[in-house]
Amino acid sequence: MVTVSHMVHKLVDEKIYLQEAIGKGIASYGSVAKKLKPDIEKELRKEVAHYAIVAALRRYAEKMNVRFRNIRFDPDSSEVNLKTNIIDIAVLKTNGLFDKLKRIYDVIHFEKGDILHIIYGRTTVSVITNERYKKQICLFLQNEKIVDIQENLVALSFSIDKKLSTTPGVLFQITRNFAWESINIIEVISIDFELTFIVQESDAVIGYKALQELLV
After folding, report:
1. Which is deepest, 64, 74, 91, 188, by most CB within 10 Å?
2. CA distances from 146 to 16, 80, 121, 136, 162 (A)
3. Smallest Cα–Cα separation from 118: which of 102, 106, 133?
């Protein structure tokens, strides 16, 4: 039998921001109950008392307080880095593509801090690097099917402490800060203990601040 408590759990679990606000105790139970009331009544097909929803939310919060906790990032072992003028080239995967991708490594100046990430998907491959290599890379790929080219991007890198490598929720907590700021993440690259997020250049400053807030 579906109860008010069941509906509260279902509706809150579907809304990650609401779930977090309740888990941290920063949401007004009364306001949340008012928001959820129409959906609960529609599902149960009857009128539900406001106080019953509030009581269910309080019980939900008690459980959340046990399992919801912030992960602490140590400023001494974590840092944020920003690289501008990044490009993301998506090309259709073919048998002949892989030999051409090898040639790209020969033109990238890694010693100058330039970047190159090649991400293999099911049907496409993404080449992420500095914009100044666009012409050379497109020349290498001239007989391949280039699906999309995104320019004016930035790479935001966030290094984490080795001790957090087995801690659940690390990626969620980092990406959550982007979501709160309505930043669209184009690509996520994970290498050892460093996470790199490719975002639009227009989101560079606010994205940098969103990661810096994790170290405060």
Report:
1. 91
2. 36, 32, 14, 14, 37
3. 102
How many angstroms separate the CA atoms of 31 and 208, rounded? 32
Q: Is residue 159 part of a domain?
A: yes
Q: Structurally, how many domains does the chain consist of?
A: 2
Tokens in use for 18? 């609401």
The answer to whether residue 73 sits within a structural domain is: no
Residue 191 near residue 108, CB atoms below 8 Å: no
Q: How far is it, in rounded angstroms, from Cα 73 to Cα 80?
A: 12
Distance CA 73, CA 164 (A): 9
Kind plus residue range of the DSSP H or E element containing 127 = strand 124-130
For residue 165, which amino acid is it? S
pLDDT digits (tens, 9 = 90+) for 2-54: 899 999 988 988 877 787 778 777 889 999 999 999 999 999 999 999 999 99
Task: List b or e across 54-64, with b for residues whose CB sees 16 or more CB atoms inside 10 angstroms.
Answer: bbbbeebbeeb
Same-domain check for residues 59 and 83: no
At 24, the amino acid letter reads K
Residue 63 has pLDDT above 80, yes or no: no
Going by their DSSP bridges, the two strands 194-200 and 116-120 should be labelled as unpaired
What is the residue range of 194's domain?
A: 79-215
Same domain, 110 and 211: yes
What's the rounded Cα separation, in Å, for the pair 127 and 82?
18
101-120 residue pLDDT tens: 999 999 999 999 999 999 99
Alpha carbon distance 199, 124 (integer Å): 19
